[in-house]
Amino acid sequence: MNANSTASPPTPGSRIIAFLLDYLVISGYLVVLTGLTFVVSRNADADSWAAFFASPIRADLVAFLTTVLPVALYFAASESSARQATWGKRRRGLKVETTAGARPPFARTFARAGLKLLPWQLAHTCLFNIPGWPMDTGEPPAWVIVGFSLVWLLVAACFVSLFVSRDRRTPYDYASGTRVVHG
Q1: What is the pLDDT of residue 1?
Q2: Using alpha carbons only, what angle is made at residue 74 by residues 68 and 79, rounded to the nearest 5 degrees?
Q3: Which of 6, 130, 168, 183 is deepest in the core (most CB within 10 A)?
Q4: Which of 78, 83, 72 is CA-nearest to residue 110?
Q5: Residue 40 confidence class, pLDDT cut points 50, 70, 90
Q6: Within 10 Å of residue 26's Cβ, how many Cβ atoms?
């Protein structure tokens, strides 16, 4: 802990529950997005719709712009706000601060969120590069297998760090110069 703050780190379980609560918010957004996608796809020309998403780069870009970016903005805006917390963190009495104990600026919380969601984006990139995905999948290229392995390695590193680091910080906390504390 930095001498500038007397706040203690939360238990790993508290952080995990906060994330699961936030995932309820994210899931609500994804349900709405899925419904809108269904409506748009039902009213679109099937061949044009399929052709648009035939490019892995285009499909990945759409996934990034409609899922990863909005979720990153949710985390960043919430954690840089006056409350310094997402809805899930507020429910658990937690907040994000800099290592000096200050409210983090938006740029820092956006970087933090981007690093936190990197495995999610990498998983999208890998999925969209599996031939025939999602309906008639073929053998994925070797780099996709490596990419999925990296996804799980990153997720495991974040999870394990909650339990083994003295101050309960994840790699994205360290990289962004932030920490989660009791608010």
Answers
A1: 44
A2: 125
A3: 168
A4: 72
A5: confident
A6: 18
